[in-house]
Specification:
It is a single chain. The chain contains 9 helices and 2 strands. With 269 residues, it is mainly alpha-helical. A two-stranded antiparallel ribbon has the order 1-2. Helix 8 packs antiparallel against helix 9.
């Protein structure tokens, strides 16, 4: 009975919490609205078609000519960043909501292992999900990144996977602990919603910086990404101090990555 009541409360509150989720997304994604003026017009950026943007907003100026090409205006970039982040966040939360229904039906002794597997699936697959959200035929160009001027302190290429892999495993453990402590709630758990938003902002940064080659937009997104992991760590700590400690190392690495993005933008203005 207690479980059914908890499920009912979660479902009833799902729609009520969507405005808060939308407000959170707007607050985190809003700074990217100024990014249009900083990106080089000569870069191969994805063009935003009028029909695509008009389908999302009738009152947004769409494109400005820059250097003979079409350059997305801040409003179009805002729609791009906020739209893809919001869509990915909603899909992940829906997945967690469905996973919780399955976990409820398992033997309680398997609950934590099941939550761990669910979060491993989320963290491993969300970058691919962002690719689907972008609906882009473009591919990442390693040559473009190699051609950029970089600071002398740039970490070697092997350092990124060597550091991210253990960090992701720590994130899985932290998220599983908090989710279990939150009774497997998704939409109505602020800590889980904020952490999922953090994950989607990281994927959005990859799309903006590497795929669309927007250095300044990427800079603004990655600093928002950094702020979100700090906030997530605080929220996790309040629910489970061990989970907060597991997430804390990500703050340090994202700070380094953000500084690298800042230097790259400065050197390639």
């Amino acid at each position: 009975a207690t479980q059914r009541a908890r499920d009912g409360a979660d479902s009833d509150n799902m729609m009520a919490s969507m405005p808060r989720l939308a407000l959170t997304l707007a607050l985190f994604s809003g700074p990217c609205v100024i990014a249009a003026t900083g990106d080089s017009p000569s870069m191969h950026m994805q063009k935003v078609s009028p029909s695509h943007v008009l389908s999302r907003s009738r009152h947004v100026p769409l494109l400005a000519k820059a250097g003979g090409g079409s350059e997305p205006l801040p409003s179009a970039k805002l729609l791009d960043v906020a739209g893809s982040s919001a869509a990915e966040t909603a899909v992940i939360l829906l997945f967690l909501r469905g996973a919780s229904e399955l976990i409820y039906r398992l033997n309680p002794r398997y609950e934590f292992a099941s939550t761990w597997i669910a979060w491993l699936a989320v963290i491993q697959t969300c970058p691919r999900l962002q690719g689907i959200m972008q609906r882009s035929t473009e591919v990442i160009s390693p040559e473009w990144y190699k051609s950029l001027k970089k600071p002398d302190w740039t970490p070697p290429g092997w350092a990124f996977p060597a550091i991210w892999i253990p960090l992701k495993l720590l994130q899985v453990q932290a998220a599983a602990r908090v989710w279990s402590s939150s009774q497997l709630r998704a939409f109505t758990s602020p800590a889980i919603v904020l952490f999922v938003l953090h994950l989607t902002l990281g994927d959005t940064w990859n799309a903006q910086f590497f795929l669309k080659q927007r250095k300044l937009t990427g800079l603004l997104v990655i600093y928002t990404f950094w702020i979100s992991v700090i906030a997530s760590t605080v929220m996790f700590w309040r629910v489970d101090p061990v989970a907060g400690a597991l997430l804390a190392p990500t703050i340090v690495w994202v700070a380094i990555a953000s500084s690298l993005n800042l230097d790259i933008w400065f050197l390639n203005r």
